[in-house]
Each structure stands twice: as C-alpha cells, then as structure tokens.
C-alpha cells in the first residue's frame, strides 16, 4: 500500500531517447531471469504431471510432456485401481485428494472466517473505544507474535489430546479460531484511520456499539477485511506443522500433509514423479486461482506496515 | 507481512469533537473513569479466550514441561533443570544448532542480496504489478509444495537441473543425498520461495524514499554508486532490519521442507532444531526434553530479535 507514492515523478528515470541504453537492457535481462526462475518451475511441474511416469527417465530433458497422459491425476484422485497404479509407477496405496482438498477448504475457510471476524471485533475495541489498560492489553497481543509456533504447539497438542479432539476437524481449527495477533494489528491500523464523524452521528442517535460496529465500521472496512481474509486463507492453506501433529486420519488430513504422505509412500528407488507432481499441482491450484483473481490486492498488500 | 514499525501511536490520542482538533500525546485525555470498559470487554472476549487458551497458558505450560520428565502417558514428573543439563551434553543438539545456523546464514546472505538487487531493478526499470506478481508466485506456495517441486527438479538421476549441469560439462550434484550439499540445498529452496517476497518488501521501502532526496543528491553532484551507498541504503535501514529479523526468525524455524525431503538426513546433515524437537517430542515421546529444546529455540529467537532491534535501530527511520 506504500507503492503508489512516487510514481509520477520521472526525474530519476533515464531518458528513453538514447539509441540503445545497454544498462537498461542488462537490468531488464536480469529481471527476466528472476521472473523465469520464479515461474518456470511451475511449468515443469505441469509438464511432469502430464507425462507418463515410465517415460520420464528416457525423456528427462524433453520440454514437452513425455508420453502425454492423465494417469497421474487419476492416481491422485483415487480413480485408478491399485494394479493399474502400480503398473504406471505408483505405490498402489489408496490416496484420495478430493477428501484432502475438502479438508483443506474446511480448515482454511473456518479458521479464516472466525479469526478475521473475532480479530476485527478486538481491533475495534483497541482503536475506537476508550478504556483503561487498552494499550497494555494490546501490547500483550502483539507480544505473542514473537512466540515461535513450535513452542506453543507442544502444549497445544497436549490440550487437544486431553480434550479427545486429535484427528478431528474441531481439534485442527481450534487454536486458530479466536484471533491471530497479525489480524488484530492489521485491522486496528485501519480502524484508527477511519473518520469518526459518521460514528459520532450514530452515537448521537443513540446507536449502541455493536450496531455501530456491524452497520458502520464493518461495511466501511470491506476492502481491508477482504485483503486480510485472503492473506489468512492462503497462510492457513499452506500450514503444515500443526495439521501434521493433529490431523493424521483421512477425515482430518489436509492437502499439505496428504502430499507428504503421498511422497513417503512413493516407491523409494523409482519415485512416482508424475503422480507426485500432479498432486503438487492439485494442492497449488486453489491458491493459483485466488492469485489469478485477486493478484493485485495481494501484491499491493506486501509491504503494508500499517503506516500508510 | 508482520511489519511493525514503531510510530507515534495515533491510538493513544483520543479525538474529541471535529477531526482537525485531534491532539497527540495526551493519553489520559478523555478517559472518564473506566471509559468503555464494559463494551470493550465484550468486543475482545473471543480474542481474549484465544490469547489465554492458546498462547499464554501454553507458554507457561511449555516452560513448566521443560523441567519435567513426561512421556504423554502418566503425569509429568518434576526433575528440575536436568533436561537442560542433558541438552548441554547432547551432541545431536549442538549438531542441530550448527546446521540450523548454517541454514540461517546462507539464507540471510543469499536472500537479502538477491532481494535487494531485484528490488532495485524493479524500482529502476519496471514497476508493473504483473512483474511483481510473477516474482511473488513462489511465496504463495506452501513450503511442502516448494520442497517437492525442487526435490524433483534437483533429482540426481533425472532431475532437469542435473541434466543442465551435465550439459555444461560439470559432474552431477547429489543435492539432497550428500551431507555437504543438503543444507545449502534446503536454503536454496527457501531462498527461491522468499526472494520475490523480500524484494517486494524492500521495493516498498524504496518507493517510500521521496524523490526530493535524490534530487538534492544529484544537484550536489553525487554519482549513482555513491548515492546508493550513502543515501539509498541508509534510508532503507528500517526495511532491511525488518527483512533481516523476518528472515532470521523464519529460518531458525525451518521444518516443512526438511520434513518432506530429507527428514534430517543424510546422517545428521539436515537435523535442524525444529525437526529435532519434533523427533524428540513426537517420535520418542520425550515431551519434557522436547519442551526444553523449544524453550531454548524461543530464547535464541528472542535474543536475535532484541539484538537486531537494539543495535540496528530497526524501529527508527531517518526519514522523519
């Protein structure tokens, strides 16, 4: 959000009128290399996923899919019989990415909706209300950002275990439901800069705080809430450590954990590379779709430091 | 994305009446007794439950567990500081600390240098959102995905990178299989994933430097190179410190890519701290020892953050 500042001023730009600006050419080439390094691996994943596993070794540098077929995707979604899968280089163990996809969607969706909502509520109290100890309590929330997740993961695992919630969706989402310190910080920063006038007019009309929150504050904050929800969702989608500890049954296994299991089941000497890459692609697709739709919003949120 | 720059906190001053009469620096202004405390309690209640149940209590419990012998079955048994004494003599711990540090150092150097270069390139020749989006792609992928993708591309037998290496006449590299290469390879994966993101953070910092600063410098006859060293870099300090803090803290907690690819091996080459904690606590059911290791990791991170903020003055900008 700090990126819009100094665009117009061309004072430092090198003039375009020179016949050939080789410094600019070198700069553009380097940038192109960086972009290629960032993007080409995704093509290679696609190319491998569309290849038949047996033909990969003989065509390891072929730019197009080696012996094009969709068997890898069938394996990932459990549509191949065990013998078929083994014949094509898979492990034959049952694997069902539809289930993992659904679990990931539930896990990320539920935690995002709840955490963003509850964090916004808290952020409202930390920005628009006046009460004793407000800033001390807010600092306490901020301080939790410094605690490494592994440190709280061990006791949290014990808590979830004692509650009998291991391998359940509830156990998986519980620690993320109530808030994230970053979300509170993010929303508070936005609320602080909102104009008070409408709110005060509503106050004079005798509106209660919860009505102001729902009818004035939240609708006006739709844009930052959307950004925050996107960032939270993608973060949750990519979460691995906690789901690895708590969600190991089929009903609670999310995509990242499923990918790890799929990889470890793959035959050691000759891995099912096309199957693995198909699974990787399936796991990445939802984020890629979100990025295709909301790319600009996501890109512009990077560098947000709450001051602009 | 958690970029905390300390600013004079506008939340402390409570606006009274029309907006223009806002004053700063009078925190007590407007607090009538407890103020909106009751309403506030209602609004922070859910977040408070989360804070207490999943942050505060676990922190205390984690510290307590580190002084016990606990195998999940039965009750924790208080053993004083014995876990810490064992850690001090544990070669696997020192090995973990060593390889993690190696990983952190490679990440800092490689990632910061590449990202800084990229940010300057973007700032100079191309500011389009599309380009920034392309560079951000790897960052949006899960660690597990980045790990598998490179596990395939860097495969010793038929990975494309080793094909290319062979074409240039060099010997193939066992990226994941050799003790010498395993950690640099993990760091490379991480650098690939974070390079664009870090570049975007620095890019945002570059955009925030007002043009008037550069204009003044060019009027004074400053050359491009010296402008970079004497103006751009010092003004970027808060962003660079932030990047360092995020990189170091994140790298110390490397787990996902290691767990999916090398699982600590070959031998102990990638048995990084968090993976070692995971093994002790969950594979060997030694929760007390695992907790003590986690406390040490926590302390290391706290010290690192403190040093970086204190000595690099990351929370102060020279632009103000």
From TrEMBL, chain A:
Highest taxon in the source lineage: Bacteria
Annotated compartments: Cell membrane
Membrane topology: Multi-pass membrane protein
Assigned keywords, A-Z: Cell membrane, Membrane, Transmembrane, Transmembrane helix, Transport
All residue ranges annotated as the ABC transmembrane type-1 domain in the record: 101-294
InterPro entries in UniProt: MetI-like
Transmembrane segment boundaries: 21-46, 105-126, 138-160, 172-191, 212-234, 273-294
Family, as annotated: Belongs to the binding-protein-dependent transport system permease family.
Name this polypeptide is given: Carbohydrate ABC transporter permease
The organism of origin for this protein: Paenarthrobacter aromaticivorans
């Amino acid at each position: 959000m700090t990126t819009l500042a100094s665009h117009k001023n061309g004072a430092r730009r090198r003039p375009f009128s020179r016949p050939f600006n080789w410094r600019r050419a070198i700069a553009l080439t380097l940038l192109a290399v960086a972009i290629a390094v960032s993007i080409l691996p995704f093509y290679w994943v696609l190319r491998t996923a569309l290849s038949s596993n047996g033909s990969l070794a003989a065509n390891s540098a072929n730019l197009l899919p080696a012996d094009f077929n969709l068997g890898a995707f069938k394996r990932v979604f459990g549509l191949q019989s065990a013998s078929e899968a083994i014949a094509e280089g898979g492990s034959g163990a049952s694997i069902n990415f539809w289930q993992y996809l659904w679990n990931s969607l539930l896990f990320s969706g539920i935690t995002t909706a709840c955490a963003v909502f509850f964090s916004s509520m808290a952020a409202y109290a930390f920005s628009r209300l006046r009460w004793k100890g407000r800033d001390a309590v807010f600092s306490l929330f901020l301080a939790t950002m410094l605690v490494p997740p592994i440190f709280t993961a061990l006791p949290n695992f014990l808590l979830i275990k004692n509650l009998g919630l291991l391998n359940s969706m509830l156990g998986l989402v519980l620690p993320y439901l109530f808030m994230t310190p970053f979300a509170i910080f993010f929303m508070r920063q936005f609320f602080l800069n909102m104009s008070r006038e409408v709110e005060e007019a509503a106050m004079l009309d005798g509106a209660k705080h919860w009505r102001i929150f729902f009818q004035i504050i939240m609708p006006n904050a739709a844009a930052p809430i959307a950004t925050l929800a996107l960032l939270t969702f993608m973060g949750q989608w990519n979460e691995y450590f906690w789901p690895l500890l708590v969600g190991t049954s089929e009903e609670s296994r999310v995509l990242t954990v499923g990918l790890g299991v799929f990889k470890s089941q793959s035959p050691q000497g000759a891995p099912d590379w096309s199957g693995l890459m198909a699974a990787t692609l399936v796991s990445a697709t939802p984020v890629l779709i979100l990025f295709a739709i909301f790319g600009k919003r996501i890109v512009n949120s990077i560098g947000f430091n709450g001051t602009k | 994305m958690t970029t905390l720059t300390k600013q004079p906190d506008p939340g402390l001053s409570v606006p009274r009446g029309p907006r223009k009469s806002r004053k700063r620096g009078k925190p007590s202004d407007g607090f009538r007794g407890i103020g909106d405390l009751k309403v506030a309690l209602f609004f922070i209640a859910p977040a408070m439950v989360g804070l207490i149940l999943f942050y505060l209590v676990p922190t205390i419990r984690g510290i307590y567990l580190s002084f016990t012998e606990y195998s999940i079955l039965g009750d924790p048994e208080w053993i004083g500081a014995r876990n810490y004494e064992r850690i001090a003599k544990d070669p696997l711990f020192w090995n973990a600390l060593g390889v993690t540090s190696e990983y952190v150092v490679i990440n800092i150097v490689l990632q910061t240098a590449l990202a800084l270069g990229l940010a300057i390139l973007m700032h100079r020749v191309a500011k389009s959102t599309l380009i920034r989006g392309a560079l951000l792609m790897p960052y949006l992928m899960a660690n597990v995905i980045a790990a598998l993708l490179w596990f395939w591309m860097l495969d010793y037998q038929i990975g494309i990178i080793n094909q290319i290496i062979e074409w240039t006449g060099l010997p193939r590299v066992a990226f994941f299989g050799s003790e010498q290469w395993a950690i640099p390879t993990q760091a490379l994966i991480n650098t690939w994933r974070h390079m664009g993101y870090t570049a975007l953070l620095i890019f945002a910092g570059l955009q925030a430097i007002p043009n008037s600063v550069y204009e003044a410098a060019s009027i004074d006859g400053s050359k491009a190179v010296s402008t970079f060293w004497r103006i751009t870099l010092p003004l970027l300090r808060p962003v660079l410190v932030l990047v360092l803090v995020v990189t170091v803290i994140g790298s110390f907690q490397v787990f996902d890519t290691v767990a999916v690819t090398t699982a600590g091996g070959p031998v102990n080459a990638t048995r990084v701290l968090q993976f070692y904690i995971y093994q002790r606590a969950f594979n060997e059911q030694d929760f007390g020892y695992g907790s003590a290791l986690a406390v040490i990791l926590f302390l290391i991170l706290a010290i690192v953050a403190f040093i970086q903020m204190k000595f690099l003055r990351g929370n102060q900008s020279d632009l103000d």
